[in-house]
Amino acid sequence: MPERPEHPAALLTLSGVRKSFGAVHALVDGRLELRASEVHALVGENGAGKSTLVKILAGVHAPDEGVLSLDGQPRLFGGPADARAAGIAVIYQEPTLFPDLSVAENIFMGRQPLRSLRRIDTAAMRRRTSELFARLGVRMDPDRPARGLSIADQQLVEIAKALSFDARVLVMDEPTAALSGVEVERLFAVVRSLRESGSAVLFISHRFDEVFALCQRVTVMRDGRWVSTDPTEELTVGQVVRRMVGREVSQLYPKQDTQAGDVVLEVRDLTRLGVFDGVTFDVRAGRSSRSPAWSAPDGVRWSARCSAWTGTTPVRSWSAGSACPVADRVPRWPPGSRWFRRTVGSRAW
Ligand SMILES: Nc1ncnc2c1ncn2[C@@H]1O[C@H](COP(=O)(O)OP(=O)(O)OP(=O)(O)O)[C@@H](O)[C@H]1O
């Protein structure tokens, strides 16, 4: 059996990619190199440009500048159908299947195998679906309706669909965000089998334990720019975080903030029965570029909706909560945003 080359040729490359939305420069220097048989992590803070890069791979956005190559050949996608035909599939965090169609019908939607008189060959569709699941090492009834499938199962249907059109590049955009521990393990097994079969998987995650457990290389992005690409085994979590944020983490969360202004919002022991309990925090004037310090007592459940504003226009919002730590979620502020609002939400996580 021939040995696998140490550095297989790139399956897909992006170089010098720029993409702006009006005055917002989402990608300034997007770069990526995906090799066959690798799981490649793409990490960066919120707003680093990861989703924009994914949308360029998926044919949703055309780059303003730069080149996307497949097998060394430059490609221009006119839309998602072109990217899919070229073998690039994107698996989103929460897939959107047709709930009233079966699993098999969802996979072959618009491409159903036909028999005589152009009638749909349901037996062939069912058989091919079972074969796809067998390749993934997954058990699922092709005839069951998509309605009621867990998010994890819906993702598996999407992955089977990607295989059905011979996708060689699978992009997974925070696929584990809504999965349980057992479901994450099952997804990892599927991803590893995709890698074994020669696919390239781009894995976007904020969870470093997953990145280090699953991925062979890591690309870091910051402020729309490529920062680095390295084998995971040559990196530590601290190095990745420093590259993502562009400074020492201790500078991000200083023990004493001498620049903070007066307290403009003070919340003490805010409680909504059955929803959250004992939420305490201050917001100080002049803290427009960083998350304010939080002090929720241990064990307290809380949730918050946060927004960044430019003038009177909300430009970005996100949720945080005790089940989803602020440090994990707070994005970099968009350029030009000067003010923020934070409200304690009324819904439990
Ligand atoms: N369609 C759009 N119109 C205007 N601005 C956009 C658009 N899409 C993205 N942006 C902006 O481009 C920048 C990069 O966003 P992008 O979503 O690519 O980052 P990201 O790294 O994927 O962040 P997240 O993890 O929060 O999704 C952000 O400032 C974002 O607000």
TrEMBL record:
GO CC annotation, single: plasma membrane
InterPro entries: AAA+_ATPase, ABC_carbohydrate_import_ATPase, ABC_transporter-like_ATP-bd, P-loop_NTPase
Superkingdom: Bacteria
Keyword Transferase tagged: no
Domain spans labelled ABC transporter: 12-248
Main location: membrane
Keywords associated with the record: ATP-binding, Cell membrane, Membrane, Nucleotide-binding, Repeat, Sugar transport, Translocase, Transport
GO molecular function: ATP binding; ATP hydrolysis activity
Membrane topology reported for the UniProt record: Peripheral membrane protein
Location of this chain's protein in the cell: Cell membrane
Protein name: ABC transporter domain-containing protein
Organism whose genome encodes this protein: Phytohabitans flavus
